[in-house]
Structures are given as structure tokens and as C-alpha cells.
Amino acid sequence: MTLWMYAKKGSEIFVYADDAKIFNHVNSIKDVHVLQTDLNSMDKWIKEWSLKLNISKCRVVSFGRKSNILQYDYSIGNEVIQRTESITDLGVVFDPQLKFGLHIREKVNKAYARLGIIKRNFKCMSVEVFCLLYKAMVRSQLEYANSVWNPHRKEDIITTEKVQMRATKLVESIKHSSCEDRLKKLGISTLKYRRLRGDLIEVFKIIASEDNNGNCNLAFHKGLATRGNRYKLYQKHVNYDLRKYFFVGRIVAHWNSLPDSVVSSDSINMFKNRLDKFLHDQDIYYNWEADLTGTGDRSNK
Fold first, then answer.
1. The whole model's pTM is what?
2. Of 1, 8, 158, 290, which cross-links 284 as Cys (Cβ 3.0–4.6 Å)?
3. Contact 129/186 with Cβ under 8 angstroms?
4. pLDDT in tens, 164-196
5. Is the CA virtual torsion 23, 29, 31, 34 positive or negative?
């Protein structure tokens, strides 16, 4: 008997290695009872297989605009599961409203700590040395899983970009140049552009997977289009920012602005090369305050 078969009354369950998450959409007390019943079934499964569960490490968290409604004391066996306001899953901090402000602050603090290590140990750096250290030690902290937590609030965007602004001043030969000029001389794009690029690459991977396997369960669908690329996506109507800035909502307009020559690439590396060439002349490449216009670089250089 599998754990999935026990949690079958309405809740869903994700299992990854030795970690399991059981969840349900709670709108009424009936939904609460369904989730608790499934927790009881999971407890039964654990005991039948003589497994040990450290309930002190288990947590309950509610997500949504009304996350404080119907906050029931869920339990496993006779022990109540501790409720928390945020939870870390695979390195990403999730808050009840899914604004990811806590995650951004945590990653920015870690990036500044790494930047401090570089500053203390490398007094004089060339452009090449700085780029290697910065990309490996600092920027990697700010880009991990950013398709999940991609910020849309200006304050969060500024918070991340300030790390890069400070970092580029470590190169003595360009420290007095403007931020935009420093990025150009270093050949480094804004973090905002990097996140957009990453989103587009993820879309390509999903669509390529669907084309190759025919069974990829997409959360969005190909739309019928007379202009644009062959994989033009349908923009669904949304009522709240949470859905508007979620991956599926925020990426549609940017993806649809790409030409067919880019989205029809035969491989991920070909797509990356064509995408970089198409977008290189965009202001957003070196200026985080700019937005993608959809024109790109259409030349054949």
C-alpha cells in the first residue's frame, strides 16, 4: 500500500526523497476535515510500515489572501503540528501571500556576505577575475530558482540590483563610471534582464518537451495566431496580482513578442544564442529601470 493511495480523499501529496508535502484547497470546514482525515491516513501508513516520523520538524502553513481563515490545529497521531508563517522548501522561502520578500532579503544578505569575502581577499582585480568571482559566488545566490520568486515590486527589484551595483565598484579601473557603463565594460547584464531571459528559456524547455513527448501537462496552452511566432501563447484573464505575476501570467506577452526564428530553435543552446542576439540591443540589458519593448535586435549581424 503506497502513501499516495492513503491520501486519496481530496488532498494532494508531493514526495521528494524523504520529504512529503500534503495539501488541500481549504474553503470550508469540510475541506479542513478532508485534510485532517488524510493526515490520519498518512499516520496509519507510517505505523504499518514501522517508519519513524519526527513530528517536531513538521509544519503547517496557509497560503492565500485569506490565509488566516479556518486555521485549524492539524495533528498527526496525538501530536499537534506546529503552525508557521513561512517555510523553506528546496532553498526557497515561501510566505503566506507568496510575495517572496523574506526570500529576497535572505538571498541578498547571503550575496553581500559573499561579496565581503571577495573584497577582503582580492584587493586589486582585473575585469576577467572579477567576472569569474562575481558570477560564481554572488550572482548565483541571486538567481537560484528565480523563476519561482521573480519579483515584480520595485522595492524588491532595487534591492537585488543594488548588490550588483555595489559589486561592480570593486573593479578599480571602472569604479567611478556610471552603473550602466560599468555593466557594459564588464559585459554583465542587469539581474532583471537575467530573470526575464531565464523565464523565456524555461518556456522553451516546456514547449520543446511537449513537442518531443506529447504528454507534457502545461498550465497554459498554445493560442491560435495569425501573426507572431508559431508557439504564440494564450493570455488568460486574471483578477489578482498573485496570478498576474506568476510564471504563467507574466511570461506570455514577452514570449509572444519573440520572432519565429528564435522560438523554432532546434536545441536549448541554439535558442539561448538566438535569444541573446535578439534582445542584446534592448535598454533592459544594461538598465534595470527599462522594460522590454518587444523590438529587440532583428539584424543579421
1. 0.83
2. 290
3. no
4. 999 999 999 999 999 999 999 999 999 999 999
5. positive
Tell me the per-residue pLDDT of 69-109, one tens digit each, with 9 for 90 and over.
667 899 998 899 999 989 999 899 999 888 999 999 999 99
Residues 6+ positions from 137 with CB-CB distance below 8 Å: 114, 115, 117, 118
Q: How far apart are the first and last CA of the chain?
A: 61
Q: Extract the C-alpha cell encoding 147.
A: 523563476
Amino acid at 207: I
Phi then psi dihedrals of residue 258, to 5 deg: -75, 145
- Cell 499537534 sits on residue: 80
Kindly report each contact of residues 46-50 with a partner whose C-beta sits within 8 Å and lies 24 or more positions away, as own/partner: 48/1
- What is the DSSP secondary-structure string of 102-120? HHHHHHHHHHHHHHHHHHH
pLDDT grade, residue 214 (50/70/90)?
Answer: very low
In this structure, are strands 19-23 and 12-16 parallel, antiparallel, or unpaired? antiparallel
The rounded distance, in Å, linking the Cα atoms of 80 and 56 is 9
**Nine cell digits for residue 260:** 519565429
